[in-house]
Each structure stands twice: as structure tokens, then as C-alpha cells.
Write a structure and sequence with these properties.
The protein is mainly alpha-helical. The protein has 17 helices and no strands.
Length: about 400
């Protein structure tokens, strides 16, 4: 691939992470409304994001294996079309159980995108620039996560008002029944998926390094990876991060509704958007820090700041909480890409399979909301959110034991 094709591929990968951010964040925004629409408990509501992240965890390793045998373009095209089916299930059959099925299908689409993207990105930008570009991916993920609640809040407000004369809103009114305005955003995501399919057809991908071993050889690769204690530690650390990020995002709006009396459709969604906005803006700062400091030092500093902010968010007054919760997002911004790049750069080969193993850690995105929701039914949301301090400490520990083969490139 020439440099121009590599740049186009990097842009395309960033667009895919924008889509992932949109799809992940909207779940957090609509949970309060789904609780009231479907008349479900916190525990049942936690099954919604859990279905999404469990699907990611289950599909990541098969996606990594597929990446050894099939061209990435075909894997991505299949994933996009499969995800489109999931979105249509969500908007056409508006029930609790079909929502769980839909989110499971959408999560199954996200898994191959993430797994295939990292090795592609490594080939396009080089291993020494991987920490920088995975952070850029996280920035796009954060941008999508920011716009998702904003879009949800806007559509909910417009649908509750007069849509006469607004062609787009009239179409959405016909597509989604009254009382289910929170589902309108998924029609826009379906359109974006179609655009990504069309773009992928014309993007040039690098030739894959096809795996030529037999089944036994592949088993030996997995055994080699699993015997590496650092692979296991990185996996646990990514699970811990996912628990923190999604545990906070999934229950933030409901926390403000329960403890501060804020409307989840407007004020709650607005604070959630600010959380994702600062996570996005934090990526800009993170990119600059990674150009100057070792990624492990950056990770340690941000983990400590996240813990301090979460203490204030959960136990401070409403004014402090409104600021502190989004600040947690700012400090979380580069944790996943830094841990991921450290892990990828800690082994010298089999990056497709390793990527599949590591993205299985998205299971943390299911565990966080589920644990918080389940404990919250018995002890309240504030007490259950306090549990998240433990996984933040696990993230902090990475800075002290990580030993990558290739360190991030600094000025």
C-alpha cells in the first residue's frame, strides 16, 4: 500500500470507531426511558448493555481467527450488514426481549470491527505509532459517544413537539410510534451503516498475512498466548477498564434522576453527553501527552485523577457531581488505547489472534452495568457505583508491571 491508501484506511478506521461510539453510548442514554416504558427493574435494565458487551466478548476470538483466514474487507462488509439486521430488529419490534436480541446482534457486529481494526491500523501506521493512533480511534469513539445522547435528546424533544413541516421528523414519526421516541436514533445509525458499507467497497486494504498452519498449530498459538502472564494481566486490566467506563455511563442519568431529581431525557442526557465530550477532548490532551511522556506514566496519572473525580461525583453535591462525573470521562480517555497498545506491543507476532483475545475483555462493559444494577436494586445506586473504585485500581497497576517490547514514540 502507498502512503495515500494508508491515510484513507486510517480515516476509514476512525469512522468505524465513530459508529461504535454512537452505538455504545445510546444504550446508556435510553436506559432510564426503557425502565419506565417496559416497567423493568435495575437488574433487568442492566441486561440491555450486558447483552451488547457479552456479544462482543463471545465473538472477538472467532473474529480474530477469521482474520487469519479471510480478507478484512469481507469480514467488515459482513459485519456491517449483520449489524444493520440488528438495528432493524430493534426499531421494528419494540419490546424488552427483542431489544436484548437486537443489542446482542449489534454487539456481534462491533466485535469483528474492533478486532480487525487494530492489526490493520498497525500495518498502516507502524507499531511505534500505534499508541498515538489507537488514542485517535478512541477520540472518534468519544465523539460518537458524545453525539449519541445529543441526537437522542434532540429527537425526543422534537418528537414531543410539533413536527409539521419538518420532513425528516415526520418520517421518523411514521417509523417510530408515540411513546417510543427514544428509538428514533437507530434509524440514523442504520443510514450511517449503509454509508460505511458503500465506503468499504472502494477502500484499498493491505494484503493479509494468511495463516497457513493446521488446527493444532492454531491451538499452540493460543496456548503460547495464554501462557504469557502479561497477556492475562492485560486482559484483566481491559475488563476492569470496560467495567468502569460503561458502569458509569450506563447509570449516570439514572443516578442524577434518583439522587438529584433531574429529567433523564434532557438534563441527564446532557450530562451524559458532557461525559463523552470530555472523554473525546481528553483524547486530544492524551495524544499530546503520549508524544512527550511514556504511556505508562500517562496511564498512572490519569487513573489517580479518575479515582479522585469519582469520589467527588458520587459523594459531592449536585453542582460538584455535574462537573466531576464528566471529568472522570476526561481522565478515562486514553486508558483503553494505552493498555491495548501496550499489550499488542508486548508480543512480536500473531497480532490478529491476540487482538481477538484482548477485545474479549469488552466483557467488562457487560459486567460493570450488570454489577452496578444488581447491587443497586438492594443497596441503592450510590453504594453500587462505589464498587467501581476497585477496577480503577486494577487499571492503575498496569503502569507498574507493563513491559512492552516497543515503547510509544516520544519527541
Amino acid at each position: 500500500m502507498n502512503s495515500k491508501d494508508k491515510k484513507k484506511l486510517i480515516v476509514f478506521i476512525n469512522l468505524m470507531f465513530l459508529l461504535i461510539g454512537l452505538l455504545m453510548s445510546i444504550i446508556s442514554a435510553i436506559i432510564p426511558e426503557m425502565i419506565r416504558t417496559f416497567h423493568i427493574s435495575y437488574g433487568l435494565a442492566s441486561a440491555l448493555p450486558s447483552a451488547f458487551f457479552i456479544a462482543i466478548a463471545l465473538v472477538c476470538i472467532p473474529a480474530g481467527i477469521a482474520g487469519e483466514y479471510y480478507a478484512p474487507k469481507y469480514i467488515l462488509l459482513f459485519s456491517f450488514l449483520f449489524g444493520l439486521v440488528g438495528i432493524l430488529v430493534f426499531v421494528l419490534f419494540l419490546t424488552y426481549w427483542t431489544s436484548i436480541l437486537s443489542l446482542f446482534i449489534i454487539g456481534s457486529m462491533v466485535a469483528p470491527i474492533q478486532v480487525i481494526a487494530v492489526p490493520l491500523l498497525r500495518k498502516a501506521c507502524g507499531p511505534e505509532n500505534l499508541a498515538f493512533h489507537t488514542t485517535l480511534n478512541n477520540l472518534m469513539y468519544g465523539a460518537g459517544a458524545f453525539f449519541s445522547p445529543v441526537t437522542y435528546a434532540f429527537l425526543s424533544k422534537e418528537r414531543n413537539g410539533n413536527t409539521t413541516g419538518n420532513v425528516g421528523m415526520e418520517i421518523l414519526s411514521r417509523l417510530t410510534p408515540k411513546g417510543f421516541e427514544w428509538a428514533s436514533s437507530y434509524w440514523l445509525f442504520a443510514l450511517l451503516l449503509i454509508l460505511l458499507v458503500m465506503t468499504a467497497i472502494f477502500i484499498k486494504f493491505p494484503l493479509r498475512e494468511r495463516f497457513r498452519g493446521d488446527e493444532q498449530a492454531r491451538k499452540e498459538i493460543y496456548l503460547e498466548l495464554f501462557k504469557n502472564k502479561y497477556v492475562f494481566l492485560y486482559f484483566i486490566s481491559l475488563v476492569a477498564y470496560g467495567s468502569c467506563e460503561q458502569g458509569i455511563a450506563a447509570w449516570m442519568s439514572e443516578f442524577f434522576h434518583v439522587y438529584h431529581g433531574l429529567d433523564p431525557q434532557t438534563k441527564g442526557a446532557s450530562i451524559l453527553s458532557f461525559y463523552w465530550l470530555l472523554l473525546t477532548c481528553g483524547c486530544f490532551g492524551g495524544i499530546l501527552l503520549l508524544r512527550v511522556f511514556d504511556s505508562r506514566k500517562v496511564l498512572a496519572a490519569l487513573a489517580v485523577l479518575s479515582i479522585i473525580s469519582l469520589v467527588i461525583a458520587l459523594h459531592g453535591g449536585i453542582a460538584a457531581s455535574k462537573i466531576a462525573f464528566p471529568l472522570v470521562g476526561a481522565f478515562e480517555s486514553v486508558m483503553w488505547p494505552v493498555i491495548l497498545s501496550l499489550a499488542i506491543n508486548s508480543v512480536s507476532k500473531h497480532h490478529e489472534i491476540l487482538s481477538g483475545v484482548l477485545y474479549t475483555a469488552s466483557l467488562g462493559g457487560a459486567l460493570g452495568p450488570f454489577i452496578v444494577g444488581t447491587i443497586g436494586d438492594s443497596f441503592g445506586l450510590r453504594a453500587s457505583l462505589d464498587i467501581l473504585f476497585l477496577p480503577f485500581l486494577v487499571v492503575l497497576s498496569v503502569a507498574f508491571w507493563a513491559k512492552p517490547l516497543v515503547a510509544n514514540k516520544t519527541i
